[in-house]
């Protein structure tokens, strides 16, 4: 018969040989670090209140607001209450606040509101949260519309006899510091990435003149280029060179109503994605010539749908508004729908110290002939300046402006 064996008989038996015991492996260690960095992004805004005497009396809780301005990724606005923000005890004071004008939750910020002394003695009235930062820390705005400021900023009776009020105008300087915190870990590499240089490659392609397949004749001067580059940069060139209505003579295209220097700069921008060195291009008459070039380039950019170039020209012309060029710039802004440039020009011309001088320029004659509708808009801007009205009377080549007051009554030009 077979033998029945228990399973436990198969368990290994202890070894009779001796062995040296091994120590347990030591645990591996790792370390890491990170840095929390808190910075303040600071921005300022100047708010001018013209016609204070007309704003006064609008009622408790009624305000005059500035344009919004951006600081630290948020929009802000200054609110001035000429009759106080709330309550009977504030009626004798003007109130001043800065408010969060965009969406945001628990935005931490520092503030400073300054009423500027217009006597030149720099005796400004300053209320600053920056000075109290160590004691109280940043102020937290919970949501859009949250405010920081003073219900009793200044007693009205004292304000109206002070040097802060000049020519019925107050100037308020607002400073906002948005507090931002970010945590950074250590970098284990140091790789320097060079800036994009595709424009350099395309620009050198243009300079080399190699493999060009289209030419342009501008004022008798010939320019060579590459169809694919032009088509990639401009939808107008794309249609002109490859579209169903493309020019029959697409090997040499004649460009009308544009000067050769302007077309040369236009081509340079399309390849380099940047404007050439204008100082080198124009020499001593740099500023005036660059303004003239920017005017022509703006029209060319709009013609060929080069939006970035159009905006670059608009910025340049906004920065260089001057008596002798502003009227032609305004005409261009109206014709090419550059709304911010148009606004800057209208405000500049409407100033009493500028208006008559601008009206005596040849550009103003061109403006009247090419954009007569702009004159009515200019009247509206003139109407907003001054306490009640500004009148400019002209004979023959000038016109008469009879402006409205700040309450918005209608204004009509009178011709003599």
UniProtKB/TrEMBL annotation:
InterPro entries: BACK_BPM_SPOP, BPM1-6, BPM_C, BTB/POZ_dom, MATH/TRAF_dom, SKP1/BTB/POZ_sf, TRAF-like
Xref: PROSITE patterns: BTB, MATH
Disordered: region residues: 1-39
SUPFAM superfamilies: POZ domain (SSF54695), TRAF domain-like (SSF49599)
Residues annotated as domain BTB: 212-271
Metabolic or biological pathway, per its Swiss-Prot or TrEMBL entry: Protein modification; protein ubiquitination
Domain of life: Eukaryota
Residue ranges of every copy of the MATH domain listed in the record: 42-176
Protein purpose: May act as a substrate-specific adapter of an E3 ubiquitin-protein ligase complex (CUL3-RBX1-BTB) which mediates the ubiquitination and subsequent proteasomal degradation of target proteins.
Protein name (database record): BTB/POZ and MATH domain-containing protein 2
Annotated source species: Quercus lobata
Gene it is expressed from: LOC115994964
